[in-house]
Fold:
Amino acid sequence: MIIFTLILATLAKLIQPVLGIGSVQNFPNALTKEEENLYFQRKSKGDEEARQILILHNLRLVSHIVRKYYSSSKNQEDLISIGTIGLVKAVDSFNCDNGTKFATYASKCIQNEILMNFRAQKKRACEVSINDTIDVDRDGNPLTYIDVLSSDENMAEEVDRMILTDKALRFVETKLTQRERQIIVMRYGLHGIPEQTQKQISEKLGISRSYVSRIEKSALEKLRGLLT
Structure:
């Protein structure tokens, strides 16, 4: 499966110069319905040339989707390559007998491939490296997680704790509702705010203590789910 993915990525890079993101003048003409059916019949019998023709003559669909839905993206060339992988998968998995138009099916495959890439990027953005800079020393030199570990004996434990803490703080800011975030910040003294009891929070926010407790419990369960 890994080798297959690498081959698809290489193919996308090879045909990318044909795409012309801002124009379709360099694209092969779209196939007629009859031609498309003929080539899919040939492909089903193992004809590699027919497969390549189906891919090349549908490249304009990849460019169209990228230009229409991701025109503001700074990485359109990367999206073209990723979308092309979706097109190749569509050609390889399409069944002419299901009654669906290939363009409709391929559009979904292209969009799915691009969205999967966005989800992967978002997931990677939450990852933390022990070489990430977290502060600077008095001389202005960057300090990383690895620099501030107390000893080699507890290095793994310290790294895990600091990375988990960093992730938790990010999730507080990005995954909780405004009310959940407000209560967690006040309850646990985040961002330099003194820790406060549920009673103190309920009085400041004008809500019942039991309601504060329910929101805190819900937020903690949400964070626990994200961190496990």
